[in-house]
Specification:
By secondary structure, the protein is α+β, with helices and mostly antiparallel strands. The protein has helices at residues 84-96, 149-157, 164-176, and strands at 5-14, 18-26, 32-40, 43-48, 55-62, 67-71, 74-76, 105-111, 120-126, 143-147. The strands form three sheets. It has a four-stranded mixed β-sheet. A three-stranded antiparallel β-sheet has the order 1-2-3, with no helix packed on it. Strands 6-5-10 form a three-stranded antiparallel β-sheet. 23% of the residues are buried.
Length: 180
C-alpha cells in the first residue's frame, strides 16, 4: 500500500478527557485532506468475576448515546504514564467497591474507534473479589449488579448491550474460559 503522510496536527479543541484535532493528511495521489482525530490518554477496564461465576456490571447514564448502559467498570488513565493495570484496579474499587488481592489477568486490548480516535482500552479479569466501599466521582451515579454470562450474552444478541468494550470482554472471557 502506498504511504500516507500526516503533514500537520492542530488541536481544534482541548477537552477535559479528549482533545479534538484536525490532521492535514497527504494522500498517495498527492491530494491533501483534513481528517478528524480524537486524542485520548487511554483507558483501562476490568471484568469482575464473583466466586459463583457471575460478572459484575455497572449501570450508568452515557450522554453521547442518551441512555443508561450496563458495562464493565472502566475509566480513563490519569495520565499517559499510569499503568493500565493500576487504572483497572482503581476503577474496580471506585465503581463497584470490590477489590482483590489476586493479580489481575490481562484479557484483551481494544481500539474503541480507530477511524477517528486513538483510545486504547486494556481489559483485565479480576477474581477472588472482596466487597468494600465504593468511591464514586462526584459526577458518577452508578448501579451495580451481577449477571450470569448467559444473561449478558442474551442482552448482547438482543441489542440491549452495545458497549463495545463490554461486549468484547464478555465474549473473550467466555471463549477463553470455554464457558457454555
Amino acid at each position: 500500500m502506498e504511504e500516507l503522510k500526516r503533514v500537520r496536527r492542530e488541536v481544534a479543541h482541548k477537552g477535559v478527557t479528549i482533545d479534538y484535532c484536525e490532521d492535514t493528511m497527504e494522500l498517495p495521489n498527492g491530494r491533501t485532506v483534513i481528517w478528524d482525530h480524537i486524542d485520548h490518554k487511554g483507558a483501562a477496564a476490568v471484568l469482575p468475576v464473583l466466586p459463583d461465576g457471575r460478572i459484575v456490571l455497572v449501570r450508568q447514564y452515557r450522554n453521547s448515546v442518551d441512555r443508561f448502559t450496563w458495562e464493565i467498570p472502566a475509566g480513563g488513565l490519569n495520565n499517559r504514564e499510569e499503568p493500565m493495570i493500576q487504572a483497572a484496579r482503581r476503577e474496580l474499587m471506585e465503581e463497584t467497591g470490590y477489590t482483590t488481592q489476586k493479580e489481575l489477568e490481562f484479557l484483551i486490548s481494544l481500539n474503541s474507534a480507530p477511524a477517528y480516535c486513538n483510545e486504547r482500552v486494556d481489559v483485565f479479569v479480576a477474581e477472588e473479589l472482596e466487597s468494600g466501599e465504593r468511591h464514586l466521582d462526584e459526577d458518577e451515579f452508578i448501579d451495580v449488579k451481577a449477571f450470569e454470562v448467559r444473561e449478558i450474552e442474551k442482552m448482547i444478541f438482543a441489542g440491549q448491550m452495545r458497549d463495545s468494550k463490554t461486549v468484547a470482554a464478555v465474549m473473550a472471557y467466555a471463549r477463553k474460559r470455554r464457558l457454555p
